[in-house]
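Dear H.,

Thanks for agreeing to be a second pair of eyes. The structure we're designing against is below in token form, covering all 160 positions.
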């Protein structure tokens, strides 16, 4: 019996040192996002990102879930800050389509100011995609989804 106890202690120590599985945390984060439990989705994604430091692919998938949860939670400033942060580490993935998708999620969540800010930032960052950003702004304007201050700002910037 004495020889079994040290072996069990080693196994327990190894299991405790492994930490949470990034894949399992991604699945939990995605499930929370799917049921619109956005705070849980963000928390699980953050936990997974912290554990997936050496696995860039897993970290990226978790970052995507986190980004969508932020946007669907109408947190425009956080979305923009996240995209800025990710553009350094994941430049190939952080492109115009991601800005457009995040702006769409913000708009659906009722954060039209955040959506406009993101569209303007995306247009500045990706000038070759100007027509796509312009079309998204025009669509919001025609649907009368913009606050008067946003309309004036977009007019001053030449979008409307």
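And this is the sequence the design step returned. I haven't edited it by hand at all.
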């Amino acid at each position: 019996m004495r020889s079994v106890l040290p072996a069990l202690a080693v196994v327990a120590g190894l299991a405790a040192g492994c930490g949470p599985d990034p894949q399992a945390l991604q699945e939990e984060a995605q499930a929370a996002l799917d049921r619109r439990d956005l705070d849980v989705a963000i928390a699980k994604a953050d936990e997974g990102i912290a554990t997936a430091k050496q696995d860039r692919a897993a970290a990226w998938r978790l970052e995507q879930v986190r980004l969508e949860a932020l946007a669907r939670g109408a947190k425009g400033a956080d979305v923009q800050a996240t995209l800025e942060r990710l553009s350094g580490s994941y430049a190939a993935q952080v492109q115009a389509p991601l800005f457009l998708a995040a702006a769409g999620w913000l708009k659906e969540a009722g954060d039209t100011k955040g959506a406009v800010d993101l569209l303007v930032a995306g247009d500045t960052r990706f000038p070759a995609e100007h027509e796509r950003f312009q079309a998204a702004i025009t669509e919001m304007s025609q649907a009368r989804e913009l606050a008067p201050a946003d309309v004036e700002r977009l007019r001053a910037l030449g979008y409307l």
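Two observations from my side: The chain has a mean pLDDT of 88. DSSP finds nine helices and no strands in the chain.

Warmly,
E.
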